[in-house]
Amino acid sequence: MGNSYAGQLKTTRFEEVLHNSIEASLRSNNLVPRPIFSQLYLEAEQQLSSLEAGSRADNEEEEEEEEEEGSESSSPPVSYQMKPPPEGCCTTDGFCQAGKDLRLVSISNEHIEVPSGFLLVGAKSPNLPDHLLVCAVDKRFLPDDNGRNALLELRGRQSSTSSCSGTLFQLPESSGLSGSAASEPVPAANPRAPAGTQQTAAAIDHIPSTAVFSSAVYNGKESSKQQLVKNNLSALTRPSVLGTLTNSGPPKKRHKGWSPESPSSTETWNLQLNPQAPNRIKNDGGSLSSLPHSALVGSASSPMVGSGEPVSVPDNLLKICKAKPVIFKGHGNFPYLCGNINDVIVSPLLYTCYRNSQSLSRAYEQYGASTIQPISEEMQLLLTVYYLVQLASDQVPLIEDLEQIFMRSWRESHLSEIRQYQQAIPQTFPQVPSQIAPVTSAQLPWLAGLAASSCNDSVHIIECSYSLAEGLSEMFKLLIEGKLIKTNYVVIICASRNRAIDSCIVITGKYQARVLSESMLTPSDYQKEVNYQLVTGKVETLGSFFSTLCPEGDIDLLLEKFYQENQGHISSSLSASVNKPTALNGTGMAACTSYEIERHQIRPFQLAVAQKLLSHICSIADSSTQNLDLGSFEKIDFLICVPPSEVTYRQTLFHLWHSGILLELGLEKEHLTKQRVEQYVMKLDAEAQIKFKAFLQNSMQNPHTLFVLIHDHAHWDLMSAMHSLYPQTELSTGLVDRLLNCREVKEAPNIVTLHVTSFPYALQTQHTHISPYNEIHWPSSYSNGVDLYHENKKYFGLSEFIESTLSGHSIPLLRYDSSFEAMVMALGKRFPRLHSAVIRTFVLIQHYSAAMMAVCGLSQMKNYTSVETLEITQNLINSSRQCPSGHGLMVVLRIPCTPLAAVAYERLYNVRERLALEDNFEIILGNPNSGITIGKHFVEQLKVWQKIEDVDWRPQTYLELEGLPCILIFSGMDPQGESLPRSLRYCDLRLINSSSLVRTTLEQELGLAAYFVSSEIHTEKAVVNDVLESDPEKLSSTDNEDEEIATEGSTSEKRSPMKRERSHSHDSASSSLSSKASITAFCSESSPPLVAAGDTAKSPHQIPSNNTEETTNNYERQKQKADKGAQTTVSKHLPPVTEQLDTKQNVKSAQISITSSSSSPFSCSSSPSVPAHNSFILQTSQCSTTKASKQPPIVFLPKLVYDIITSTDSSGLPKSSSLLPYHSVMWASSFRPLMSKMMTCTEQSLYYRQWTVPKPIHMDYNNRNEGRMDTFHPRRLLLSGPPQIGKTGAYLQFLSILSRMLIRLTEVDVYDEEEINNNIKEESDQYCHQPGDMWPDLETFKKVPFDYTIHDPKYEDASLICSKLQTINSEDKSVSRRQEDTYTRRQTTRMRLSKYAAYNTYHHCEQCHQYMGFNPRYQLYESTLHAFAFSYSMLGEEIQLHFIIPKSKEHHFVFSQPGRQLESMRLPLVTDKSEDYIKSPTFTPTTGRHEHGLFNLYHAMDGASHLHVLVVKEYEMAIYKKYWPNHIMLVLPSIFNSAGVGAAHFLIKELSYHNLELERNRQEELGIKPQDIWPFIVISDDSCVMWNAVEVDCSGDRKRDYTWTERNVSLKQILQHIEGTPNVTHYALIGMRKWSSKTNSAEIKEPFSFCHVHDFIMLNVDLTQNVQYNQNRFTCDDVDFNLRVHSAGLLICRFNHFSVMKKQIAVGGQRSFHIKSKVSDTPVSISPAQYICAPDSKHTFLAAPAQLLLEKYLQYHSHRFFPLSLKNYSHPVLSVDCYLNLGPQIAVCYVSSRPHSLNISSSGLTFSGLLLYLCDSFVVASFLKKFHFLKGATLCVICQDRNSLRQTVVRLELEDEWQFRLRDEFQTANAKEDRPLFFLTGRHI
């Protein structure tokens, strides 16, 4: 076989087959082996699933199981495992060191003679370490065919780690190895080769040649001799480069009861080498991504199986030791166990931890850390011993702690290397760094013993020479002899210098063994075990033991006796104390005023969270993935999934009902019934599928409804649906996976899933469905000390509870009960076979029973309860007596196991009945599967308190039990989201399953106590604090053990010294009972015992609990009064108590006075002072419910849990946070960093996402896609927040605002203003058209006079345009037209978007994906840039425009063939008719509205083909192209970057005319007449959102009678209607009304008007060839253009039956022009008066176009130029060739100087001013002399520069009639380079 060092390049797979081939040949009768390569390459590999073996050793069914642990599969060489071969090794393949041929061929041909009846057996002795003896042995002395022991039953001692792995057994040292040995009987037991070491090769070389072995196969299993070769493998492969074949198979015969475990996530590979003897090779790292193969470098033999000589477990072990020892397998081999194996438990947990801790994390591999060795086995074991030594007697070892210790140790020892690899690039062959001398195996036992020497024998080290078997035997022997009573841990080490170590750790401490063995039970096993013990009556021994404790006899007898004696007396007394307040309440004499049930209200926190949820939904919708199209949804629907707890279900319905959300969402009508509400909440139980199916069906039928699927309490039941199909699982498990992860939910585009939980860790793994960006965490209330949300209540959660336990704080809210724990521990030792949950429950019931009896007067029972239980019971019973209405406290008693809860309920119920307390407080059994049942008396009380008149009302949630004095026995393995009322005072968690240490489990148990308290709690805290800290000596002196309950003579266990400093305020129970009772009597019910005065109160039986409680409360009230300064005494029993109470003497004296005041509690009724006393209580006592609501509840925990919760790690993080987060996830690696206290929720989430993986039973297990993002579901969110903080309210609020937002998305604010100046309109009965006419008649229309008046409400502050007709009417009416001069906010109304609306970039829907160019399925739309130039004489230069044309729109254009130059834009013919085509190209000029402009006309055009061009400025081209990639862009030249809308209109019109000429030329060649080319274009504003049409019904009797309705129509319909107008080419401009809700019949009676058109126009570029837009204009350019068109004699037609709605857009457009100062960087407000200045002045120059400054100045300050014109509407300003807005108080009269133009008749009109703006050569002196002006009228001439100003004055002979002064010259206040405009003003002479 050769030496493995020589063949470093061979694959492990080859080695496996080679060795197995040898093995097969040894088994077969002929010596010809099967060909190796045919095995390697021709046999199929079959993967078998590896069944997970149970963790308990007493599972006898598995004893004959045939499973075998094989070797690792092949893997590439791990460089840091390459060690140099030992000296003297053979170096030639196939030959040993001595040159002997070991090749398979040679061996098979060589014949070795063996005597008949003998077999060759190899033997090894430590005396001859380098030699192997092979001898012939008589078959009779070897195991027979059935694996039975040898004939003489002699057993050799197994060699546990000898230097040669080929060793079968070791001869007794006395027997020599001589030639005679061959004939002597050689004993053999089932052999097993242990781990090999590096010095083995030389000895191994000779094995195959000498061991030619028999062909015996025992029952299809290997004989012990055939095992030899397999054992060889481990020796050969251990030092090899590959280091992967580390497990060899176990012997086939298992000893009784031993069932080896295997790690759960492994895969087994089966190579069928021989049909007779299948050999399974186990691949331990199969699916553990986090465990590289190097993980197994430490042990060459799997400890999963036993090896060598069996160890017999002694009989009666459990009986003698009182506990089942737990054996943790460590390194190396583990022997077989036989005998009484039911009394031990074997666990692989530690082995797994060791193995994991030897796998270097990928995090370190990335630094190339190939030479960094994992922590050695010796070091691991030594650190384990150190860890065990420092554990206190009441602590239990935690694997998490050990992993962190290994991690820290490894990091510290390799810090320099890690840093080196982080800083430098690793070399190809890095040098091995020099290591600190490691711990050797020889030093290990000595160092371990040294470590253990300081622990008072708590850790016992057993060192053994040969194997663990002898150590285990010795340990069992010591246990039986009782020598390990003080020992909690036994560490067995088998180590020697030249071989690997074997080790195991035995937990012998009764407490630790019990906790660890119980922690191995699954929740269902735990329930079964407890149930079994209850059903089989095993607990009866416990009951009989309790009855022996009571000296007076059985408690039941005492109760019966008490009941008989006091029956009549008690009932009258109690009815007086309980029913009296109710009667008083009924008569109104004295009632509790502080009782209130909290109503549904949204707190600031909840609103903030709802808004965060909404913003996440919006971000999903806004992302480019198109996963959520919010714009397509019209309304919201939802379904809330809750766990199958009846109370949680009712509670959710309760919240839903009171939130009003169903009415708000419009899902239900006003008369809402409870049955209807139930449709929206689903219990995840057997019936859930029906409701869920209906939900899915609903979602499919309503694609325009957004369905929100809310999974509340989302950490509950994350079982994979595949794993829940087994018959033993409950029906409800796996439902979440089956329903919420079904394909329909995942694929439905209208379902959003929201997981809501307080414990999100299980949903934050490497395979989670939820993107980290879709997590919403509850915000913290403080940031940098600033209170972010002003809440009137303070939340108390886990961190606040833990904080209260720190020294320096007020009363600790978390406590444990040490006397209870001591009792439980003692009974645990006495009854080792009973589960601790049973013992704990029975002890606690006993304590509660005794406490109730003690409070009722059986004072001797105080000795049989703990002070904590007594405090709880006293306060519970007395709480209702202190309130005039009988309000009381709630005590939650958490009993997870349902059968135990039922037992507890029955017992406590009986005790309460016997004590006649049935009207004092209620006992409620809270079962998750059923509702709440309470007595009729208490139902009536609740109805009175809550003012409920419904006869059939019953409380259905715990919240409705507000103020009810009760013990709530809360059962169920996990809380399922039930909320508790504010009257909760005590949360007794002493019975929670403390062995299940998982973060979620612990935190959800503590979450029951989470609480909101009124913010004014802090003042009360301070007072209590003073008293608390007054006597530290007394506070800590609680170790008086004299009267501790001693069971079996045990003394109370001491706490660990580390905990001593905090114990005084938490462990209030290790003092004597007498002092306890007095303390409790002294304490208020809201505080723990304040002092332990053992010497001042030695007579507990005299303390009257009833009076004491009253006195205590009096003391509390007195203390509060004292704080306020009121000095009153409470009663004659008490001395005056003042503020100085916090001194020692006063505390002591007050206590003595209380203790000495004694009278029988039930003799009060006969005492003369009682009536006064009772009335005093009724008048002054404060309701305990009110007090309870002002302070969080007190929580009692098991000591083990308390220690974990309150201890912190180095960063200050509670230890519980570093526990495994959830039971169905596991850590990805032991090499994970510690969590930090400073981590935010987001960082914690990322931590868990990196370091946890789901187990196969977890529903996310199969959701992996190699780390790619597409494993995340796009519509799935996770909301996490602390328990009971208000998440339900937050997500209901989220639904509300999401609904409002959807409605808002489907609505738009449109301008809704009445037309202005209607009173100035010429009232005429001469209507030209009938109301029902569809199109104007050209000839009729020509007769209609032009209406100069502007009616568009946006020009309300513009100058009135006068005409001859209006002058008469306007004089009196115009003054009243505007009451105020200030600009008022324009009126809007909210409209629902129709299906024909235009949209901005936020709209996404399936139909217009392609239109928008965003669809990810299509390639991103490519665009090309084309230049298009034409000359324009007025500008004096060639204009160059650029078109950006997407590929998809190129068909609208004509390109030259060779060079693809843009030639023209295609135009249709006038005669073209098509239903799906719009002839007119649409141009939309826009600026600053790339997101908000309404450019998506797909729906408006109803899908019709159309040409739409966006006209943008050059600097905005890129951003518009990004948002609108599939739109054609017309980019204006850069000189127009600062121009206004006039420039865009001017260029659109000029370009269109030029294009019309090109198209006429192009199509003329095709035989088409020029006049047949379609001449119209549409110019639309970027805010036109919807279009309406009026339908007129003229079916009335009279000719002009009609009715009309207005409805929303598509733009396509309107444009096609207008394009179809007869003689349409004769109209120059066609427009429509601006929509208004106030439109009246008069406005639409005339269907067509000859007037101004705005916003959305069709422009005939052919007719208007000689009429231009003014390219300089910013405002009113459309009015100016309309006037020019009319004066040119062209027709303007407004279709009054059509209207356009304009959306209010708050950004861009006119608002994008800001007038700023060039000098100052700071924004200074500049008033319009400063827009002009004197020429050459040093006025601040403004950075704005001159034209804008001019227009704005004239709008606000034109009265300075035209003082006579102010409000003088009958004498307007004459404006030549232009319309400029001079403000609303000045009227203008427009005239055109063009020849043949249409102007109003100016005869009879006298003007108050003349405005000449940039007048051209058509304006001449003779033209101006036609007009008459008032004396003193003013003139304003505006020119481009001062020179042209003077020329104009001269040319127009203005000085003849006008007088000018030097100071009347002005300019716009901008710099010379910005070309200011110049003014000259003058007066008419």
Layout of helices and strands:
Elements: H1 12-27, H2 36-42, E1 46-49, H3 104-109, E2 118-123, E3 133-138, H4 201-204, H5 207-210, E4 217-218, E5 221-222, H6 226-237, E6 267-271, E7 279-283, E8 306-313, H7 317-321, E9 326-329, E10 334-339, E11 345-347, H8 349-356, H9 362-365, H10 377-389, H11 399-413, H12 415-423, H13 443-452, E12 459-464, H14 468-480, E13 489-496, E14 499-507, H15 510-519, H16 523-535, H17 540-549, H18 555-587, H19 604-622, E15 635-642, H20 646-659, H21 661-664, H22 674-677, E16 681-683, H23 688-701, E17 705-712, H24 735-740, H25 743-747, E18 751-757, E19 775-777, E20 782-783, E21 786-787, E22 793-796, H26 798-804, E23 814-816, H27 818-830, H28 836-855, H29 867-882, E24 890-894, H30 898-914, E25 922-926, H31 936-945, E26 966-970, E27 984-988, H32 999-1006, E28 1011-1014, H33 1017-1028, H34 1032-1036, H35 1060-1063, H36 1073-1082, H37 1105-1124, H38 1144-1156, H39 1170-1180, H40 1184-1189, E29 1194-1197, H41 1199-1206, E30 1225-1227, H42 1241-1251, E31 1252-1254, E32 1276-1280, H43 1287-1305, E33 1307-1311, H44 1338-1342, E34 1360-1361, H45 1366-1377, E35 1388-1392, ...
Parallel strand pairs: 8-10, 9-11, 12-13, 15-16, 15-17, 17-18, 18-32, 19-32, 23-29, 24-26, 24-27, 25-26, 27-29, 34-54, 40-41, 40-43, 41-42, 46-49, 53-54, 53-55, 55-56
Antiparallel strand pairs: 1-6, 2-3, 4-5, 6-7, 9-14, 13-14, 20-21, 22-28, 30-31, 33-35, 36-37, 37-42, 38-39, 43-48, 44-45, 44-49, 46-48, 47-49, 50-52, 51-57, 56-58, 57-58
Helix pairs in contact: 1-2, 1-6, 10-13, 19-43, 20-43, 27-28, 28-29, 28-30, 29-36, 29-37, 36-38
